[in-house]
């Protein structure tokens, strides 16, 4: 019996150390943008007053999106490269903190199931706005 108790304690400690320790935010980009495709903006055009003036903006073309129950993954192709950028956006009801601003035009409702990629938006130029901590705060249409 003592052997089972010891094995149980070892398994629980392993599980505790494997799963604990890291705090993660929900609106961080899955991939960080390459350094050569970002631009420092000193005065954002038409930016709300609560946004900081030294945000980073990445330009990319919209490729597709995949909707899930509580989040949507948006995929973009960075300008000047074939590199794909994936951004997971939590639904506003479940997002921790400020929700990422995303145009509703990227998705279209389907008769059965989750929303799908709007084919009219594929290939459109977009700006992905990062705050000073590197988290995505907005995805905007550039056109």
Give a concise summary.
This protein has one helix spanning 2-19, and strands spanning 38-40, 56-67, 71-78, 84-90, 107-108, 116-117, 125-130, 136-141. With 143 residues, it is mainly beta. The protein has one domain.
Topology:
Layout: H1 2-19, E1 38-40, E2 56-67, E3 71-78, E4 84-90, E5 107-108, E6 116-117, E7 125-130, E8 136-141
Antiparallel strand pairs: 1-2, 2-3, 2-7, 3-4, 5-6, 7-8
Please explain how this structure is put together.
With about 140 residues, the protein is mainly β. The chain has one domain (about 25-140). The chain has one helix and eight strands; from the N terminus they run H-E-E-E-E-E-E-E-E. It has one helix at about 1-20, and strands at about 40, 55-65, 70-80, 85-90, 105-110, 115, 125-130, 135-140. Strands 1, 2, 3, 4, 7 and 8 form a six-stranded antiparallel beta sheet that branches. A two-stranded antiparallel sheet has the order 5-6. Strand 7 and strand 8 form a beta hairpin. The protein starts with a helix and ends with a strand. Mean pLDDT is about 75; it is low at about 35-50.
């Amino acid at each position: 019996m003592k052997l089972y108790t010891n094995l149980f304690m070892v398994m629980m400690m392993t599980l505790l150390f494997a799963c604990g320790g890291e705090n993660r935010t929900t609106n961080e980009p899955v991939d960080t943008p390459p350094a050569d495709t970002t631009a420092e903006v000193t005065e954002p055009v038409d930016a709300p007053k609560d946004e900081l003036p030294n945000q980073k903006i990445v330009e990319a073309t919209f490729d597709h999106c995949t909707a899930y129950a509580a989040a949507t993954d948006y995929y973009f192709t960075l300008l000047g490269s074939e590199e794909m950028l994936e951004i997971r956006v939590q639904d506003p009801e479940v997002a921790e903190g400020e929700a990422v601003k995303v145009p509703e035009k990227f998705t279209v409702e389907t008769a059965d199931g989750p929303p799908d990629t709007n084919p009219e938006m594929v290939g459109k130029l977009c700006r992905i706005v990062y705050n000073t901590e590197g988290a995505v705060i907005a995805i905007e249409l550039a056109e």
